[in-house]
Amino acid sequence: MHPRWRTLKGGQIVWATGGPIKCIIRNLSEGGACLEVHAPVPHNTFDLIFDSDNSRYQCKVVWRQPPRMGVQFQ
After folding, report:
1. Does an H or E element contain 69, and which?
2. Dihedral of CA 65/68/72/74: which sign?
3. Nearest alpha-carbon partner for 49 in 33, 65, 31
4. Residue 24 forms beta bridges with which residues?
């Protein structure tokens, strides 16, 4: 288990087909993040792009409790 840091960063959820979905990264660790998203995310795997520096992480959804979801970095 990795320690988590509270954040309030903007990001985008993207995948091969379809447009990006904006999200807020609420907390972050070396292994994953908690995202707040107010639109349907139909996939369980996607890339997360941070608005601040365009860093990109491959993610897998591990839990959903709208409007939040937990993702694990792949």
Report:
1. strand 68-73
2. positive
3. 33
4. 10, 36
Q: Cβ neighbours of residue 6 under 8 Å, at least 6 residues apart?
A: 26, 27
Residues 23-66 have pLDDT tens digits of 999 999 999 999 999 999 999 999 999 999 999 999 999 999 99
Q: What is the DSSP string of 46-60?
A: EEEEETTT--EEEEE
Tokens 């990001």 correspond to 11
Contact present, 59 and 48 (Cβ < 8 Å): yes
pLDDT of the residue at 2? 75
The predicted model scores a pTM of 0.93
